[in-house]
Design brief:
single chain; alpha/beta; 5-stranded parallel β-sheet; two-stranded antiparallel ribbon; 9 strands; 28% helix; 19% strand; globular; disordered N terminus
Length: 149
C-alpha cells in the first residue's frame, strides 16, 4: 500500500492465497517464475474461480538476469485498472518476495494504492530429505489446483 515500506512485504501460505483469491475479485496472482518452469513444472490453476494467473518473469531465462523494468511491465498488464492487491508466487518464495518488494516500491513511487504480498512456500515448496520439491509444502503439495501444459 502507499506508505508501505518495500521491506514490509507480508507472507501468506498458499492456502491463504487461494482464500484471498476466492473472496476478492480485485486480487491478482502473479507468477514470477520462468517460462520453462511454467511449461514443465506447471502453473496455479484459478479456472475454478473464473480467473487466470498473470505470468511475468522476474528473472529472464536463460541468463537469469533480473528484469530491470519488471514493475513497469507488470503495470502495463493492468492498463488503466489498478488491482488493490497482488499476490506474488515463485518456486519457493524467494524470487516472489524480491519481486513484491520491487513492485511495492514502484507503486508507492507512483501513488498507486496496491498491497503486495508474497506467497510463502511458493509453487513447489521446500526440498525434502532427498532434495525433491513439491512434497513437503507449497501450492502443489497443499493440493491446490494446478495445471501443466
Amino acid at each position: 500500500m502507499i506508505g508501505e515500506s518495500a521491506e514490509d512485504i507480508s507472507d501468506i501460505s498458499p492456502d491463504e492465497a487461494w482464500r484471498v483469491l476466492e473472496s476478492s475479485a480485485d486480487t491478482v496472482l502473479v507468477d514470477v517464475r520462468t517460462r520453462p518452469e511454467w511449461q514443465f513444472v506447471g502453473l496455479p490453476d484459478l479456472s475454478a474461480l473464473g480467473r487466470s494467473v498473470l505470468t511475468l518473469e522476474w528473472q529472464r531465462y536463460p541468463d537469469m538476469a533480473i528484469e530491470r523494468d519488471f514493475a513497469g511491465k507488470l503495470f502495463l498488464e493492468f492498463g488503466d485498472r489498478t488491482p488493490s492487491r497482488l499476490l506474488f508466487i515463485c518456486r519457493s518464495g524467494q524470487r516472489s518476495k524480491a519481486a513484491a518488494r520491487c513492485v511495492a516500491a514502484a507503486a508507492a513511487g507512483q501513488d498507486r494504492a496496491m498491497e503486495c504480498i508474497n506467497v510463502a512456500e511458493g509453487f513447489e515448496g521446500d526440498r525434502d530429505y532427498r532434495g525433491r520439491r513439491g512434497l513437503i509444502n507449497g501450492w502443489k503439495a497443499r493440493g491446490l489446483d494446478w495445471i501443466q501444459s
